[in-house]
Design a protein that fits this description.
Chains A, B: GO terms for molecular function: glycerol-3-phosphate dehydrogenase (NAD+) activity; NAD binding. Two copies of one chain form a homodimer. Chain A is built from 15 helices and twelve strands. Chain A is an alpha/beta fold and 393 residues long. The first copy, chain A, is globular and about 65 Å long.
Chain lengths: 393, 393
């Protein structure tokens, strides 16, 4: 990237986390000399009704006039240089930095449009999407950042931003850390991209190389958080919860070491690793919904419910506690379980497997603690699992 | 140790944690073929009054007749083979395994008596004491286990048992993990000693070699927990707390790497490391008292209080919340700060130093977040600090 080219940033998505990160990116773009002042934010257009009127109005228009995402991040003022754009083609026109922060199910339809409109040679991406794809042919997990890179083609590089970043707290400016993973070219470019997100002292972004480890942590932590909800419902206290988090981190590291290349042990100690896992296991919707699931089960554990009833129970909880939004943890859990099952690795990942069995196969919630155990140390674990890394077959 | 010698176990101490671990040790000794059935527990004799009578009775007699430590672990039945002994000489007579679980201020007076009475050649120890000594001459931290080894002489080996082990939860049989650190001779002996403590599935003990790392974690975590209390009082939420815990673990690792030999990175991922730190930062008395301290300060931060007023405030909190018991975190903090100050290392340990300055030098509580930052990755941190390890001068 030559210095004459300014970064044209486009945020793809405008939900809760997208709007929160827009507060940082907007203020930084206005300040950083190498960025265009205006940051576009693609908005999946919908109509909202404001308290002061009965007439529904378009969300993008509200964002641009009131500088507030009244639906997904109410009460927080967005920087005035954040421009909501409902037309994707227009939003990403000539963009050099794409920030992906939307449900990943949207990607297949959007990526061809994005590819056709961004800056042809100087565009890079950072994904804030928490999830994993699953390749049914190779039976391997696929990183969303890789899916984006492949769809964008032409050597497009996509990193990730992951960390202990509950969106509302970030938006309110409460101090936290975040991890930018990716190597976008050279040190200068890496530092530029870090600066786009960093708002020290309250949003401290550290950069690492290991995209796979950081991104997988973002998906896998939600599985462990389901286990945390089960432990909470069982009334087991702080020791057990800490053991669950520790063993969960080890299973995460083992999974990453086995299925992805370039995973570094240190990643699990970054904000995207242990810090995000801790926050998610103490707060967060996955923990909460799992606690509710377990409480309903514990109320009558004699019924050995089948997969269909489990699904129905999760749907009921999603309807009641999340207004029908899908829980990320159970989605990731089903993907991870397919991978483990197809490779007969359930026994090697006892924690993940037990969380699956409780969530979908009617295993009693009280079995949770049986799976909180590990025989090997962390160091030995990652070394062994890396040496046993699976080749795509 | 030949197979013909049975382990004669003596627990030195009978407080809350001592009584809790006695439930595990007692049941194990009764079951394990290489242990004498009876386990003696040295009780610092005091008089207690039972609800059914007005006449005070001796605590040791109550423990032996009711099999319950009515004062320090009420409601939990101790195994009947735990024998409370108020006379130290009698308690440790011919002992081959000493379990130290008492305030470490008691040690200087007790160790000569213990040394003179245990089995002359076959005795080993495991310390459950959480604290650090400070050598005012060398200005170096001293492990309690080392103090014990030196006082016992004759090649006495002392390991430690540390972990996310809130005593009451352990006593109630709620599932947790613990870390036994020490190398007591060979694999067989190590496994024997592990089995004395382990009560799987609810008390899972893993053994590692690194005594220094495990023991120092047990003391240093209480310092970080004070910071957690400050963060809680500031109402900063889960992201900030997770960042504090993460950066706290890094400072702990850095401190250990700099001041002790043989510290292994993996130790910080064992139960004695991250798991104990998490439990202590969410529950625990150090967090709670620090939250109270911060709330009192925040109620009137305009007063720039001096060290004396800070001390008075802590004493008031100890009186009100701990019935006058001393907080371990502030004691460890003062020891660690003496070390850092005398070596001009305050800037290298910004988190510990800020917690000290808030606790004892009138620094505003709101400064806490300024110190939750780290520039280097965990791996790099430990590597660098080890290479800069200080020699005893």
């Amino acid at each position: 990237m030559s210095d004459s080219i300014h970064e044209q940033i486009c945020i793809i998505g405008s939900g809760n986390w997208g709007s929160a990160i827009a507060t940082k990116i907007g203020r930084n773009a206005a300040k950083l000399p190498f960025c265009h002042d205006t940051v576009s934010m693609w908005v999946f257009e919908e109509e909202v009704t404001l308290p002061e009127s009965d007439k529904p109005v378009k969300l993008s228009e509200v964002i641009n006039s009131k500088h507030e995402n009244v639906k997904y991040l109410p009460g927080i003022t967005l920087p005035s240089n954040i421009r909501a754009v409902p037309d994707l083609k227009e939003a990403c026109q000539n963009a050099t930095l794409l920030v992906f922060v939307l449900p990943h199910q949207f990607l297949p339809n959007l990526l061809p449009i994005i590819r056709a409109n961004v800056h042809p040679t100087r565009c890079r991406g950072v994904s804030l999407i928490k999830g994993l794809d699953f390749d049914s042919k190779t039976k391997m997990p696929v990183l969303i950042s890789k899916t984006i890179e492949e769809a964008m083609g032409r050597g497009f590089v996509c990193g990730v931003l992951m960390g202990a970043n509950v969106a509302n707290e970030v938006a309110m400016g409460k101090m936290c850390e975040s991890t930018l993973a990716g190597n976008f070219g050279d040190d200068r470019i890496n530092e530029r991209i870090r600066q786009v997100f960093d708002e020290a002292p309250n949003f401290r972004v550290a950069r690492i190389d290991d995209v796979a480890g950081a991104e997988a942590c973002g998906a896998l932590k939600n599985i462990v958080a389901l286990g945390a909800g089960f432990v909470d419902a069982l009334g087991l206290g702080g020791n057990t919860k800490a053991a669950l988090i520790r063993v969960g981190l080890l299973d995460m590291a083992k999974f990453c070491g086995m299925f992805f290349e370039g995973v570094e042990q240190g990643t699990f100690l970054e904000s995207c690793g242990m810090a995000d896992l801790i926050t998610t296991c103490y707060g967060g919707r996955n923990r909460k919904c799992a606690e509710e699931f377990a409480k309903l089960r514990l109320a009558d554990e004699s019924i050995n419910i089948d997969q269909e009833s489990c699904n129905a129970l999760w749907t009921k909880i999603e309807t009641e506690l999340l207004h029908g939004q899908k829980l990320q943890g159970t989605l990731a859990l089903q993907e991870v379980h397919s991978i483990l099952e197809s490779r007969k690795l359930e026994e090697s990942f006892r924690l993940f497997s037990m969380i699956y069995n409780i969530s979908f196969k009617g295993e009693p919630v009280s079995s949770m603690t049986d799976a909180i155990q590990v025989k090997k140390s962390f160091t030995e674990m990652l070394r062994r699992s890396s040496s046993r890394r699976l080749e795509i077959s």
